[in-house]
Amino acid sequence: GGVERERKRKKERRKERGGREGRKDLTGIESMDQCRHTLEQHNWNIEAAVQDRLNEQEGVPSVFNPPPSRPLQVNTADHRIYSYVVSRPQPRGLLGWGYYLIMLPFRFTYYTILDIFRFALRFIRPDPRSRVTDPVGDIVSFMHSFEEKYGRAHPVFYQGTYSQALNDAKRELRFLLVYLHGDDHQDSDEFCRNTLCAPEVISLINTRMLFWACSTNKPEGYRVSQALRENTYPFLAMIMLKDRRMTVVGRLEGLIQPDDLINQLTFIMDANQTYLVSERLEREERNQTQVLRQQQDEAYLASLRADQEKERKKREERERKRRKEEEVQQQKLAEERRRRNLQEEKERKLECLPPEPSPDDPESVKIIFKLPNDSRVERRFHFSQSLTVIHDFLFSLKESPEKFQIEANFPRRVLPCIPSEEWPNPPTLQEAGLSHTEVLFVQDLTDE
């Protein structure tokens, strides 16, 4: 009766401690002040605290670095953890109690000496499990030893570190079942062989949750054991995303039978399924909001690009008009300059013309010019003068074209009035065969 009352008091103390340990259950920090300080550094994000703490010995830098401007989100809710402990069966009958009382002093002495030896050994040689060098190797090694001892019919082990399992469970919104294997515990072998490898247990775990397992004799398992602080073996912890934090929602300790394990796991999942559903809906809403915002941004960018394209075309049109206006202006200026130069050239030619001979001069030639505009011009020249004089006279006229040639009618020929390769020095009027009275035709060559 005294032993049973002591067990009940311990069980009640564990339940009272469940509420306090909700926030520090995953961090593995014994001091409440240190636990609170660590969680405040991570905005009370339990998963981030666990991730950083487990990464410290792996040499992996922290992947959580929230901006300092983000306000602290303090969770004041009381997260109570469902705890289920299976006690070892009490001795029955006179023989059982007699054996129990006889072995009690020896068992007490053995465990006392063993604990003293382990405590003293820590000062002589540090626990090698405290240094995690190959966490994935620890998981793979445990898997191989488990299959060698219990066969390949077992739940699918998560082949990754505890931190990776937490991240995957959070990302996939799934339950994470953690199993810590105590190699030296007397119930571990029976639990693995008869409970964990039972077909109905395998089916439940494989279909409804992720399963991470490791031995506490391995550095990775020992480190997780320090974080979860199990009381006895076999030990199972159910972890899930609850209120946006990875939280332990159930602890199962002791030798539990397959049917009982299925019932307890189902009860824990059913009691917390609403949190996953709520988180899934929130994620879908956030995704839809993000998609909507992305669509709005794309529409805005498309409208912006269209406006920019319109503005670019307007600029190009304005630039084209400006260049065209400049080109027209340049052409006008060039035309004015050409006309001015042409007029100056006409005036110079006019000034250089020899005086017109008198009608009484026997060596004079009377020439009537028919211009392209059907007007007629008459002037006298001297037989000894070059045909160039005739060309200069016509060029100096206001009515004459800019470029022209002079043609005679009988016989029809073009007079070589301008120096050329054939006539470097144009002939005189007499050499050209002109008579005392001639009619010459001016042919316009400006457009040729």
UniProtKB/TrEMBL annotation:
Residues 18-30, 306-351 have a biased composition (Basic and acidic residues). SMART domains: UAS. It comes from Aotus nancymaae. GO terms for cellular component: lipid droplet; VCP-NPL4-UFD1 AAA ATPase complex. InterPro entries: FAF1_2-like_UAS, Thioredoxin-like_sf, UAS, UBA_8, Ubiquitin-like_domsf, UBX_dom, UBX_domain-protein. SUPFAM superfamilies: Thioredoxin-like, Ubiquitin-like. The gene is FAF2. The keyword Membrane applies. Residues 360-442 form the UBX domain. This is FAS-associated factor 2. GO terms for biological process: lipid droplet organization; response to unfolded protein; retrograde protein transport, ER to cytosol; stress granule disassembly.
